[in-house]
Amino acid sequence: MRVLIADDHPVFRDGLASLLGTQPDVTVVGTAADGAEAVALATELTPDVVVMDLQMPELNGIDATRRLAETRPDVRVLVFTMGEEDGTVLAAMRAGARGYLVKGASQDEVARAISTVHAGGLVFGASLALRIADLLSGSAAPDRSAFPQLTEREVEILDLIAAGKNNAQIAAALYLAPKTVRNNVSNILAKLQATDRADAIIRARDAGLGGG
């Protein structure tokens, strides 16, 4: 299995590369320090699996995963995250990731996860199994058709608003700056002609957003 590792922390990146290098069926073909480099190297080095950190400069892991899904759909992405924050993992899965691992997983867990993803399987924690199964079946994905005036990003944020997330939680889940979230929320309220956030939540839930 040809593996590319993308992480902006050199110690973690190099350590993981060394660990995977001891696995008999894994070849680490390269490492990337940010999402943009990960996308470029995935095109150049044709890995089977990209182990993708989520918080990276230039291009975050979710956007890099989305770009790979569009340009290199044959490459499987396994994301690494610091914790099982619901919105973050769901955003990664929506972007095209085949699963995730929490940083701190053992060498054997990492090797098994890479092997599973390479074979076409999915890897995620039991606590999110039902949510992700719903997502992959399409029932939990935000439906933009109900709000054609909104951009894809605005629908994604409206979905999290309807799920009861505040701006700080949305910023953390989508790896956006708090100011960016505030601006998007203002745009959403204006485009929907909603009187306030609560009004937007009611309308979004009526349309099936917010996890049903």
Automatic annotation (TrEMBL):
Pfam families according to UniProt: GerE (PF00196), Response_reg (PF00072)
| Transmembrane regions | none
Question: Which superkingdom does the taxonomy of this entry point to?
Answer: Bacteria
What's the protein here called? Response regulator
- Report if keyword DNA-binding is assigned: yes
Q: Which GO terms describe its molecular function?
A: DNA binding
Origin species, per record, is Nocardioides agri
4-aspartylphosphate is found on: 53
Keywords of this entry: DNA-binding, Phosphoprotein
The HTH luxR-type domain extends over 143-208
Q: InterPro entries from the xrefs?
A: CheY-like_superfamily, NreC/VraR/RcsB-like_REC, Sig_transdc_resp-reg_C-effctor, Sig_transdc_resp-reg_receiver, Tscrpt_reg_LuxR_C, WalR-like
What are the residue boundaries of the Response regulatory domain, all occurrences included? 2-118
Q: Which GO terms describe its biological process?
A: phosphorelay signal transduction system; regulation of DNA-templated transcription
